[in-house]
Amino acid sequence: MATKVVSVAPRVEILAKSGINEIPTEYVRPESERLDLGDAFEEVKKAAEGPQIPVVDLQGFDSPDEEVRRACVEEVRKAATEWGVMHIVNHGIPLELVEQLRKVGKEFFDLPIEQKEQYANDQSSGKIQGYGSKLANNASGQLEWEDYFFHLIFPEEKINISIWPKQPTDYIEVTKKFGRQLRAVVTKMLEVLSLGLGLEEGKLDRELGGMEDLLMQLKINYYPICPQPDLALGVEAHTDISALSFILHNMVPGLQIYYGGRWVTAKCVPDSIIMHVGDCLEILSNGQYKSILHRGLVNKEKVRISWAVFCEPPKDKIVLKPLEELVADGTPAKFPPRTFEQHIQHKLFKKTRGDFKTPN
Question: Which residues are in the Fe2OG dioxygenase domain (predicted)?
């Protein structure tokens, strides 16, 4: 019989390794959330026949042929408009560096719990960077089947290296290098997305803070094996508050997207990065690009690790609102102005699917 978790959530890794056959009640999702909820390996098999998240090849954007470039812009625009998520391939980050990032992240989570606890965050006091697990922040006290490590990776002059893992010894070097390389991808994607809206290519990057102020926050998600994957979620349904989010994983399935009135389980596409449109970009684009509802499944067979990077504007410097170029008599502004901080406060803990139709 599973013991009930009362107040402080233990690390999910400890629970998973304790030999339980039933998950504590705090991890059991309500009936309304169990549609298409199941073992990620089973769900990805079922999804093989249905709609698939688009795969976009970024190589075309670097072509000297203007027609090829335009075709790439259109492909990204279509995916961002219809899906709000895509697998991007030929993104320009060396695959060896991606492998190194996976390796150092896994090595950190392979450390004994006592060592990881040295980096524990303290959400109650606002210290959100570091090693943590989801705290119950809703009336039902529900928890997610994951532990994580969260910290800023770019711009480098704003990062706090003292809270980064010292073990493995190459974690800092590899993660910094990845941050720099991913910032180039962020720049490129914002250029493509700007052109897709009929704007000049530097527009979105500038509106979000540019090289100096656009923040890139890394969250390494560690989803242990779960004895009842049909009852639990690694991450509950949400849209990202960011402008863009980029996700790498260890080729274990788990991502589900709410598309066309149903949950679609993402396939694992080798050598790709998953890119989500976030709320900030939906607001700037006046709803043309979609911030899509998604969640994370767990499974009985394999630990899943994902590396999510959230690209966020500064909290108070910038007012987020639909861009003037995209507002006209026939297309009024769909979202009232707000700072990113105001958006976080207003939006972060909404739970029902209806709340996610727009990032209001």
Answer: 214-313
| CATH code assigned at 66 | 2.60.120.330
Buried b (16+ CB within 10 A) or exposed e, 216-243: bbbbbbbbbbbbbbebbbbbbbbbbbbb
What stretch of H or E contains 311?
strand 304-312
Once rounded to an integer, what is the mean pLDDT over residues 36-56? 93
Catalytic residue, candidates 91, 116, 151, 219: 219
- Concerning whether 238 is annotated as a catalytic residue, the answer is yes
Find the catalytic residue in 116, 238, 276, 290: 238
In a domain, 322, yes or no: no
Give which of 146, 190, 188 is closest to 289, Cα–Cα: 190
Number of neighbours of residue 128 by Cβ within 10 angstroms: 12
Determine, yes or no, domain membership for 278.
yes
Asked if the structure places residue 26 within a domain, the reply is no
Give the active site residue among 240, 276, 279, 290. 240
Question: What is the domain range of residue 126?
Answer: 33-312
Which of 151, 203, 276, 294 is catalytic? The answer is 294
Q: Is residue 240 annotated as a catalytic residue, yes or no? A: yes
The count of domains in the chain is: 1
Known catalytic membership, residue 294:
yes
Which tens digits make up the pLDDT trace of 1-23?
Answer: 343 333 345 799 999 999 999 99
